[in-house]
């Protein structure tokens, strides 16, 4: 392969969204778009969990169950940064949240549906 092809494939591997070298003024807009995509995926997962609960009487044990049932695509199990969503079930409900770079649940992107909340 040519040098150009090698460089292009290296860039695409480093930046799967194919956006490289963003000017500083666009970085915030790009991150806001990714945050919006994460929230959209959370909303889609919530609808799928509720559809599962309506059919089975309880939330699924794992988000992977939603994929096997055909309720969501596997790509919805991760945010745009490739971080898996946090999901746990409890008495009468579930907790679903996006996580930050350290793996902690984001308070601004959490759906707490445990115990009738």
Give a quick rundown of the structure.
The chain is α+β, with helices and mostly antiparallel strands and 117 residues long. Helices cover 43% and strands 17% of the residues.
Beta-strand content:
15-25%
Number of helices: 3
Task: List low-confidence stretches.
Answer: 5-12
- Give the helix/strand class: alpha+beta
Coarse morphology = elongated
Helix content: 40-55%
The description of the largest β-sheet is: 3 strands, antiparallel
Q: How many strand units? A: 3
Q: Tags for this entry?
A:
single chain; alpha+beta; three-stranded antiparallel beta sheet; 3 helices; 3 strands; 43% helix
Textual characterization of the structure:
A 3-stranded antiparallel β-sheet has the order 1-2-3, with helices on one face. The chain is elongated, with a radius of gyration of 18 Å. The protein contains 3 helices and 3 strands, in the order αααβββ. The longest helix is centred in the middle third of the chain and has 33 residues, at 24-56. Mean pLDDT is 83; it is low at 5-12. Strand 2 and strand 3 (105-112) form a beta hairpin. It is of the alpha+beta class.
């Amino acid at each position: 392969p040519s040098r150009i092809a090698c460089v292009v494939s290296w860039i695409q591997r480093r930046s799967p969204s194919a956006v490289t070298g963003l000017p500083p003024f666009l970085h915030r807009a790009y991150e806001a778009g990714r945050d919006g995509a994460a929230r959209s995926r959370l909303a889609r997962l919530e609808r799928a969990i509720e559809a599962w609960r309506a059919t089975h009487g309880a939330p699924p044990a794992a988000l992977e169950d939603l994929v096997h049932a055909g309720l969501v695509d596997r790509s919805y199990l991760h945010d745009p940064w490739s971080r898996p969503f946090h999901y746990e079930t409890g008495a009468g409900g579930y907790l679903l949240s996006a996580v930050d770079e350290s793996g902690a649940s984001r308070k601004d992107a959490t759906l707490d549906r445990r115990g009738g909340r």
